[in-house]
Design a protein that fits this description.
The protein is an alpha+beta fold and about 160 residues long. The protein contains three helices and seven strands, in the order βββααββαββ. The N terminus is likely disordered.
């Protein structure tokens, strides 16, 4: 079941893929076609170092894209989804970000079927429990869909939205 907050559903992108090495020695697959680029990265089990690396990779992918502030919002929401996948599952995850002139779609796939639910955190939870609330309030659209034995949590941002 796919949950969608607002807007249209998933978009597909085809293209040729290339692997490039980043400064940290990890590989990223980047595909480009028809003005769109796609980043794909495997995230290791419970490896929270992947969170800032994912933010940096999305920042690089979005260089020169969208209105001011859109890239920062995308980085924040990406880090929330990556953190959730790594903290709330005991397995690997896969980050995919697709950017085109019209917008951005970020997906984080994990291998646990349990679906996340946004909830209003209580005051005694500190900063925990706010990730999906942020995604819900800042993304143009977002959702969760089952895939294989796991799920994909995704969000979209339009390039020109304020």
């Amino acid at each position: 079941m796919e949950r969608q907050a607002r807007g249209s559903g998933p978009t597909a992108i085809a293209g040729t893929s290339a692997t490039r090495r980043t400064g940290e020695g990890t590989a990223e697959d980047v595909a480009e076609q028809d003005g769109a680029s796609q980043l794909s990265r495997r995230l290791g089990r419970a490896d929270l170092r992947a969170v800032p690396e994912a933010r940096r990779a999305v920042r690089e992918l979005l260089r020169g894209w969208g209105r001011p502030g859109r890239s920062e919002t995308a980085e924040l929401l990406t880090s929330e989804l990556v953190t959730n996948a790594l903290v709330h599952t005991d397995d690997d995850a896969v980050l995919t970000a697709t950017v085109s002139p019209s917008g951005l779609r970020v997906e984080v796939r994990d291998f646990v079927a349990r679906h996340p639910r946004p909830s209003v955190p209580s005051a005694d939870e500190g900063t925990h429990g706010r990730g999906l609330v942020l995604v819900e309030s800042l993304a143009d659209t977002w959702g969760v869909r089952a895939q294989g034995g796991g799920k994909v949590v995704w969000f979209e941002l339009g390039a020109e939205a304020a």
